[in-house]
Amino acid sequence: MALTDPSARAKALSRIIDAIPELQSRLRGLRQRAYQEMHDQLGMSWQAIADDQGVHRNRAAQIGKGVVGGRKKKTAPAEDDPHL
Fold first, then answer.
1. Are the CB atoms for 32 and 24 separated by under 8 Å?
2. Distance between CA atoms of 45 and 55, rounded to whole angstroms?
3. What is the residue range of 29's domain?
4. Tell me: the pLDDT tens digits for 30-63?
5. For the chain, how many structural domains are there in total?
6. In this structure, are residues 56 and 50 in contact, taking their beta carbons and an 8 Å threshold?
7. Cα–Cα distance, 3 to 56 (Å, whole number)
8. Does residue 25 belong to any structural domain of this protein?
9. Which long-range contacts (CB under 8 A, 24 or more apart) does 65-72 make?
10. Predicted structure pTM score
11. Which string of DSSP letters, residue by residue, matches 8-71?
12. Is residue 42 part of a domain?
């Protein structure tokens, strides 16, 4: 159902926009854990992960190690489901 009242629509959109950074951080953490799992548990090389995911080998290693923009960044911990 579309919000026809512009004030209510603006407030709803603001709440969504405010939640995006937290969501992105959580998703980065989940992706990092998946890369780590492929590397550590499945024994895949960073090159094999890169080929599988369609990224450069260096980028695959950066993602797996939690490097963002050339530095390691803390990511939001995943809650209950580790595969969510």
1. no
2. 13
3. 8-72
4. 999 999 999 999 999 999 999 999 999 999 999 9
5. 1
6. yes
7. 43
8. yes
9. 65/32, 66/32, 68/28
10. 0.69
11. HHHHHHHHHHHHHHHHHHHHHHHHHHHHHHHHHTS---HHHHHHHHTS-HHHHHHHHHTEETTE
12. yes
